[in-house]
Amino acid sequence: MTALETITDTDLPERLRLAITRLARRLRQQSDVDASPTQLSALATIGRLGPMTLGDLAAAERVQPPTITAAVGRLEAQGYVVRSPDEQDRRSVRVEVTSAGRKLLARNRSRKTAYLAKRLRALSPRERATLTEATEILDRLLDPDPGSST
């Protein structure tokens, strides 16, 4: 019996969750920036989606508005984002990544990618091919489920 044959339908979700959690923790440990995971995630979302309101950012990050307000406040104090009045609604502000914020994101991503590249070099070509296929499958798992709101 192979390892694949011994994994049951109930084992796989648990093992996958644990492996992803541990990998995410290892990648967070590679960060040398002075920002929390929440701040980095918010900064990356603003960088990816462009200038946005704090409400839109809170929704995109799936956190409460006070959490985003605090994270953006710290990012702004460090010079990684700037706030500007919303052209459509002067009561709102939009937040945008600065060049310093873009550099921070690039440096953070580069360190994490280098860590993974080093670890991947230790694997066999067959194992790397398996991970390539698994990456495509994981991307599909992350696609929105048509029947849910998540």
Mind explaining what this structure looks like?
The chain has 150 residues and is mainly α. The chain has one domain: Orthogonal Bundle (Arc Repressor Mutant, subunit A). It is built from 7 helices and 3 strands. It has helices at 3-6, 11-29, 37-49, 54-61, 65-77, 99-121, 125-142, and strands at residues 52-53, 81-85, 93-97. The chain has a 3-stranded antiparallel β-sheet with strand order 1-3-2. A hairpin with a 7-residue loop joins strand 2 and strand 3. Helix 3 (37-49) packs across helix 4 (54-61) and helix 3 (37-49) packs across helix 5. It is globular, with a radius of gyration of 19 Å. The mean pLDDT is 90.
Fraction of residues in helices? 55-70%
Please give the count of helices.
Answer: 7
List the strand order in the largest sheet: 1-3-2
Outline the low-pLDDT stretches.
none
- Taking Cα atoms only, what radius of gyration do you get, to the nearest Å? 19 Å
> How many domains would you count in the coordinates?
1
Strand content: 5-15%
Please describe the biggest sheet, giving its number of strands, its sense, and whether it closes into a barrel. 3 strands, antiparallel
